[in-house]
Design goal:
Blueprint: H1 3-6, E1 9-22, E2 28-44, H2 48-53, E3 61-66, E4 77-80, E5 86-89, E6 107-113, E7 119-121
Parallel strand pairs: 2-7
Antiparallel strand pairs: 1-2, 1-4, 2-3, 3-6, 4-5, 5-6
C-alpha cells in the first residue's frame, strides 16, 4: 500500500436534488442527498501561492488525491465522513492524473472547504 493510499479517508459525493425544503421565511432551501462513496486523501495546501491567496480569501484550499477511476469534476461537492467537513472542487481532476502506464494510480484536483447551502436529506 502506498503512502497516499494510507492517507485516504472515506468520502461521499453530495448531489443537489433541488429546492424541496421550506425555510423559515416562506421560501425554499436547496436539498442535497448522499451519492457514491469513494476514498481520497485530502491535504491542506501549504504552498507559497496558497498562503498568499489566503490573504484574499477566507476559505482554506486543499489538494484531493483519488484513484484515476474516481471522477473529480469542477464544482463537485463531497463530504469527508470522518468529521463531516464538506468540500467543493475548484479544479478538474481530469487534467491532473498519472498516465495509464504509471505505477501510481491517482488523480488530483483542488478543493475548498465549503458550507453546504441547504440541507442534507436521507431521502431520494
Amino acid at each position: 500500500m502506498t503512502l497516499y493510499e494510507q492517507a485516504m479517508t472515506d468520502c461521499t459525493r453530495l448531489v443537489e436534488i433541488g429546492d424541496t425544503a421550506r425555510d423559515h421565511v416562506g421560501g425554499t432551501e436547496s436539498a442535497w442527498k448522499r451519492g457514491a462513496k469513494f476514498r481520497a486523501a485530502i491535504v491542506l495546501d501549504q504552498s507559497q501561492a496558497a498562503r498568499m491567496a489566503d490573504r484574499d480569501i477566507a476559505r482554506d484550499s486543499y489538494t484531493v488525491i483519488a484513484p484515476r477511476a474516481v471522477a473529480l469534476a469542477f464544482m463537485d461537492v463531497f463530504i469527508r465522513e470522518s468529521d463531516g467537513q464538506v468540500f467543493r472542487l475548484t479544479s478538474n481532476g481530469r487534467d491532473r492524473q498519472t498516465p495509464m502506464s504509471a505505477g501510481l494510480d491517482m488523480r488530483a484536483a483542488s478543493a475548498e472547504a465549503w458550507e453546504l447551502p441547504g440541507i442534507l436529506t436521507d431521502g431520494e
